[in-house]
Amino acid sequence: METMNPQSVAWHVIGRMLKEMLFPPSQKGWRLFWRTNQLLFKFLLDLARNPDLIWDMMEEVANIRPADLEKDLNLGSDASVLEFLSNTIMHFMQTELVPVYYEWETRQWIQAAISSDDPRKVYANVLKRITRVLEGCNKPLFVPFKISSPNPEWLEHLQANNAIAALEKIEGIPFEQVLACLSSHTAFVHLVASDVGTYAIITRRDTPPEIVLYESFTRTRVENILRGWMWLYYWHRTGQFQETVVRVIKRHKMSAAEGAALQEAAIRIPYRQLFNNQPLFDYLHPTEIPAVNGRPTIPFPSWLLMEAILRELGKGDLIAGEGLWQRIDEKLYPNGIRRIIVCSDKALALFPHHGAILNIGRDGQKECLLDRYEIVYLPQGALAQVAFVKPQPQKHLLVFGTEGEVLSDVGVANLCALSPKYIREWHVSEGREKLAAELSRVNALTFLGHGEYDWENPSQSFLGLLIDRSGNGYDDVITLENLVEQISPQIDLITLAGCETGLPKITMQASDYKGFAEDLFSQCGVSTIIATLWPVPQISTVLLMHKFHQFWLLGDPVTGERALPPATALRRAQLWLRALTHQQAIAELERLASVYSSDEIAKEIQTLREGIIEQPYAHPYFWSTFYVMGGVQ
Q1: Strand 423-425 to 397-401 pairing
Q2: Which segments of the chain belong to CATH 3.40.50?
Q3: Which of 72-81, 195-204, 338-347, 544-553 has the lowest mean pLDDT?
Q4: Is the distance from CB of 355 to CB of 368 less than 8 angstroms?
């Protein structure tokens, strides 16, 4: 190919793209052309809101070598220019532009935390970052979701305050069948986000359903909070926060001393300075988090932003002034409701509503929705597909995990030791035929290990079965598609204690769901699925899963209750983990290590012994990622 400068390459590509779109003229081509311009305008508008970001991106583009660009584009090939250009642009955005955007935002958070020795200024700057995120001013570029408007027929009935007709339209079944899923202590709460606010349809067994409108929670407002949640997701999913600090140091060619100071600020300064900031503490009451080698286990923006979002969902008054769940709680708790089946639309499907903060005491102690209620979730419109909990004379459980991952091995070994007679174990070396045979003999399945959600193609989301030699990938996985094919009809409970196993795909229409939990629930006749909303911390997950299986298999020794239903068992385990003191945590970890020892457990025990935090796993990050789908009695 003839050598071309970057400008020539760019114009050549643009010319080929326009020709592909517009010649020969077609309606599809014009729609594509118009949509491309809309996206370009939106992208430029986002950049205009953050002028410093434009210069960072220009610098990133300037570093691209023309020879590499020509080689990558391969303009002389017969491949579709549009398809190739789309892939090239997406790759460029994901590898160059998006990290720069996160880098810029991360710098702002760090700067806000170290901007002054005056606690009042630190408070004002950090609160400004939180507020901007929750108001939608600082939204992540290229967030992979779009929330559509609710079904017009639903809205018509909701606006007319016709709760029964709205329920029947949403669920597609007669109202009598909805009531059949309720006991005297259980209520349905359907949440529908609209342009005028969020409608909550509250249905109890012995009273007519009612509709409550929360005007401050408009669809735009919910989208903004959800975008804040996506900041948390990306910071956790890829270690983006820690990676960004390193990128900032390299891009700005900092000296070793400057780089060390920035890394210190990114981790330690907020932990020391923010907690000693009385106004910020009084306003947010952040839950303290454990540290490893003096470094908190959660990036401080996530730590503060998560609690701010959960407070917005619960008691409110940070931005909206009105919490979503506080008024619902006022209608349910005094009437003896202790179990809520949450049926939220896609705009609200990613939130762990059970972690919503209802009250904060003067001592900073938080009361969450989980403290008052047992919470289970159902996708809206799924009541017709509900598989009721199947009576099981005896529980037979199959356990497997990510082999080669030490903490997964620790967790699996300890689960098997709980009840060897009724718990079976499968290893990847035994082959998939053996897995199918084992699944036909049990009524419950537990996976404890690594998972990964595929936003583009949820069917290819997978559970890691065998870590490769590098420790960074997998020699064997089982995809969602494969897992659905393997599940036998008699299986009633599936627990997926891996990263992102409960994420729903939210890029489609509001009534469509796609993920491990949704597919297993709708296609396999499984009554109960336990899954996660974000990458899970390993040691606290091992503790939580061990306690959950104890409650589910053996009962609660404190109350004397025998084997508990899955939703009840998970709630008890979450409350237990949240309240666990560091001395109790040490004792629990020592018990786990007596079955299967590991350096990771030993390090955690040492960290807890050296720590001063009374309740190391109290932060919602450790426990609210787990939720129950189904479990309808």
Answers
A1: parallel
A2: 387-630
A3: 72-81
A4: yes
Beta strands in 303-396 (DSSP E): 339-344, 357-360, 366-368, 374-377
pLDDT digits (tens, 9 = 90+) for 499-525: 888 877 655 443 455 677 778 887 888
CA–CA gap between residue 259 and residue 2 (Å, rounded): 43
Q: Is 82 exposed, middle or buried (0-12, 13-18, 19+ CB in 10 A)?
A: middle
What is the C-alpha to C-alpha distance for residues 311 and 351, in angstroms, rounded to an integer? 12
Beta strands in 384-470 (DSSP E): 397-401, 423-425, 444-448, 451-452, 462-467
CA-nearest of 228, 175, 164, 219 to 197 is 219
| Token pair 């972690």 in the structure block, residue | 355
Where on the phi/psi map is residue 285: left (φ > 0), alpha (ψ -120 to 50), or beta? left
How confident is the model over 541-591, as pLDDT tens digits?
A: 999 999 999 999 999 988 888 889 999 999 999 999 999 999 999 999 999
Quote the pTM value.
0.84
The helix/strand/coil state of 535 is: coil
| CATH-assigned architecture of domain 387-630 | 3-Layer(aba) Sandwich (3.40)
> Which class for 188: exposed (0-12), middle (13-18), buried (19 or more C-beta within 10 A)?
buried
Cβ 104 vs Cβ 53: under 8 Å: yes
pLDDT digit string (tens) for 222-280? 888 888 887 777 776 666 677 777 877 887 788 888 888 777 766 665 555 666 666 66
DSSP helix/strand/coil, 517: helix
Which residue in this structure is represented by tokens 């600082």? Answer: 138
Structure-block tokens of residue 484? 């659905």
